[in-house]
Hints:
The chain is α/β, with parallel strands linked by helices.
Amino acid sequence: MSATECEHVMPPRPLMPWTMSLCAGVCMSCALVLNVAADALQGEQAPAFGPLWAIPVAAAVFVVLAQSCAWLAPWKRWLYAASVGLVAGAVVSAWWAVGALSASKALDGRAASSLEFVVQGDPSINDDVYSYTCEARADGKNLATVRLSCDRELKVGAHARVIGRVSRFENDAYGRSRVLRGEVRKVKAVRIVSVDEGSPGPLLRLRNGLLASIAPATDLARALIAGVVCGRSSELRAQSAGDWFSVTGTAHLIAVSGSHLAIVGFVIEGVLQKTRCSRGLQRAILAITLVGYAAFTGASPSAVRACCMVFATLVVNGAGRRRNGASALFVTMSIFMLLRPTVLFEMGFQLSCASVLAILCFCPYATYALGELGVPSGVASMLSVTLCSQLATLPITIPAFGTFSLIAPLANAVIGPVVSVLLAVSIVLVPFSLVAPLRTWALVVPMIAARCALFFEQLFAAVPGASVSVPPDSMWIYLVPCLLAVLLVWWPRPRARPMSVGLACLVLLAAIPYVYWDRFAPPSVTVLDVGQADAILIRQGGAVALVDCGLDERVVAALVRNNVHHIDAVFVTHWDEDHWGGLPAVLERFSVGTIAVAADALEDAPVEVLNRPGVEYRQVRRGDTVDIGSFCARVMWPFESVDGEGNEDSLVLLLSYVQEGKALRILLTGDAELDQEREFVQEVGDIDVLKLGHHGSKVSVDGELLDVLKPELSLASAGEGNRYGHPSDACIDAVKEAGGVFACTIEHGDITVTPTANGFAMRCQRP
């Protein structure tokens, strides 16, 4: 048999080991106990302990069935493993829950100034606000894990004392996700009193030194190098490039995982083979190096999972036993959850395990199927990895992000090798940047590779329809794992002609969303989640308008995930940067027909938005109307000519929709203040929805205005952990006292309002 024929041999159906039932048992019991604990920790509702009885009952049933049912004898090991997993998971998660509840009580009534916070990992950065997972200590004892927000960067391992407020997480999707990950309180630092970097170990000192020499905050390419080498992606995700990776489905390339360890292992093994070390010593050095690298990059769940599987493989090879990747994965997952139950709710852990399982089970099959279609073997191997991991992680990524990347297979096939080269050369060269005379030269080649990767990322992200928005509550995504399970059981032999027809149908299905959103979009108004800034999307059919453009490039990502392909008109309410800062990025990414501002405000427009070819510049006055499909936007303020620089100059639009028995009235206030709003509020009268100005600050609205407007829903756009405390409690209380509902992008992400026969409906990106 020739080599070509060998490549096209139908792969055998992989057999699932009994360790899968052990892992499933641990997962189910941990999930149940931790959700009950989260109810108790958030304190908003009494926890329901009743469902916990299902764990011992199910375990007992499995044991009885294993012992008494002869026809279940082949599954006896599976049943015993499931019962053991249920009991073990319940015990360790209950132990964690008791400790978390005790820690929560210990923090009640404590001032932040009485605690010491030890930083556990890299921050998330949003609007210059740094958020850290920290250990809260008092009198040298660890009390609890908390979420600390402040306005400056802290190094991993630093000991900080702050003045601020310790509070419970809100009972919303974000707050619950933080609690399920083990953070029992949030701490908002008003002022940092002192920071002690402590005595970091050698790996942490090396990491801090490399990050200082790379300087990821100064350049996108440097941020990418820091991500792939040191596992720090905070700066990259806080910039526009972070959105590129999301749109193209290549975010996994900057997360330290098995592929990273494989490349590092390849480099190390290549060096070791040049020495005269024995095979056993080489394996030992390789294992120690990989563990050290995983610890060096922050010991993320995906990296530790990969390390454990490498160790299992080395042990099995050394013992001369047959390897089983799926069994190693399930055992590793079980150990992870038994050691730290909250890892089950970390997205990195979920994505890593789901993608690895899919690759182990279906990658040979997908490679064979693509080979039947005539795809070269090398390309087929790369595409199959991407396709398998992407399909398996859909039930995780779509509820979290609400988007699906159509260009991911092609983008991964092109960018994946570039990032692999970047990692390989960076592992060798970047450490030389610690030597001052070599700092500049050591980064030259990695910078070239990083810029090449970023070029392709931007290129693929700019492709129209690169990703499509999918409702987070779409039930069809949960059919994917069911279909994969059927495929695993059935394991049919793929044929070229049926596959070609199927792929043609998939291409047509993929084109439907593009045509739908470009020509037949339903009427809607969406307050986009763009951080501490404003951007409101209005669309109906093929007509699209944008009111304000956010602060930076995040508005482009928000428009992409909402399937925007062109923009007919952009209204800039005034020239505060959090309202126009993203406009240059919008003009670069989309075709824009008109930019509209208040009368005479164009004279003070930033130079970045002027003299754009093909763009019409329009100045609107009080009483002017602009049609956006069936929406009519009427200018309510300002009354006279303005320069557009102050809040009092904000363009205020009354948005009306009346069509086919549906009606909707929305007031978009920009940053108009109370004095200005009182000038036109009587003319506006009763409305359905109010877009609050100033990100929901205490001066955005009051009871008197609400009594006139009578909005059923009030919306605010604000950034997570912003330093201003927006939205303010005073604003929220005023809205609720007036009988309305308040919603903010911090909690819900993009908030979409659509007219209905009975009023309007609200849909949120994050339920």
